[in-house]
Amino acid sequence: MYEFHGNKKYYFDMTHKVTVGHILPYIQQNWMFPQGMQVLEIGCGEAGVLKAFTDLGYHCTGIELEESRLEYAREFMQQELASGKIQFLNKDIYDVDPEVDLGTKFDLIILKDVIEHIPDQERFMPQLHRFLKPGGVIFFAFPPWMMPYGGHQQVLPKKLASKMPYYHLLPGKLYPMTLKLMGINESGIKTMEEIRSTGISIERFEKIVKQSEMKVMGKKSYLFNPIYEYKFGIKPRIQWSLITKIPWLRNYLTMGMYYLVCSNK
Questions:
Q1: Nearest 5 degrees, angle CA 127-CA 131-CA 137?
Q2: The pTM is what?
Q3: Does residue 198 surpass a pLDDT of 70?
Q4: Contact 88, 121 (CB under 8 A)
Q5: CA 47 → CA 62, 147, 195, 205, 209, distances in Å?
Q6: pLDDT of 1 strictly over 50
Q7: Whole-angstrom Cα distance, residue 213 to residue 205?
Q8: Which pLDDT score is estimated for 30?
Q9: Alpha carbons 22 and 16: distance in angstroms, whole number
Q10: Considering only CA atoms, which of 101, 46, 40, 88 is closest in space to residue 69?
Q11: What are the residues facing 44 on neighbouring strands?
């Protein structure tokens, strides 16, 4: 297993650096931050992304289902919590009333490496309207399911299983059988199967956005995802323009997508 998956402080610092170096500039290129901006991150984890926004003086909220990850977030963001710059909520997004539970709606909503883990994305996406202020935007970052490591196999403890690309695309029972042959236990196989059940392509993401009465304001395709610089020492690289124009094929060769989306209501 790659060390950064177990080292929460390193992961916090890594996501903070990616946000400062890539996510913030991308959003600012496509949208002007309003004065007194309110920022919400859904699936905030240890809150490395939100750290970049609190550093700029914006008030932030993080929602996270895993209480264990919020424990780290509170530890790493002690000063921001004490000064009222950030608040955290451990709750299912479907059960949250933004104005009652959080005290506000939001100018900017962030889902970084989250949408590909959410079941029934067609049901989930329209929920975001409830949290968005008029004129607000939503930032998404995700790896297309069909890309070499779209199954998140890099988190697996066995060397071969963690480094072999594309085998998560094996159909039916061939995938769990292959995992078992490579020494992955039942718990690990179940986790990988859950990831397979929610993986999302570029085309399906854009279709769900449209169905949810939203529109794409901007998108950016990466051959090498910016976070790979800190995970693997691979410099970010924008996807070739020709590849981005070829439906379906682009999913197999694109390792990261950035989107900025707004309401079309």
A1: 100
A2: 0.95
A3: yes
A4: no
A5: 7, 26, 22, 24, 25
A6: no
A7: 13
A8: 96
A9: 10
A10: 46
A11: none
